[in-house]
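Table S2 (continued). Query chain:
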Amino acid sequence: MMRLDRTGRGQNPAVTDWTPPPPGDTREQLPDDVLALIDVPSYTSTACETAQALQAAADASPGQAGDLGEWRQRLHTRCRINNKFTGALCNCGCH
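Corresponding output:
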């Protein structure tokens, strides 16, 4: 249930002060000896994957291509570039 503060705005009790590491940071990356034991799959970031879906939607709905293009660009800009656990680089053609 959402609680309201004194101003009447909602407060999300699940929000914390934790900030994820920036793109390229290796703090959460598995050690090389562990990575050597697994097949590291090709990686496309969630942001780029969603941007690609938006491109497909824009191709199917040309009337909304402008708005979708703006969202697509924002998402590509938000790409982590590398997988935070494996270090694999995003294989999207936007980079």
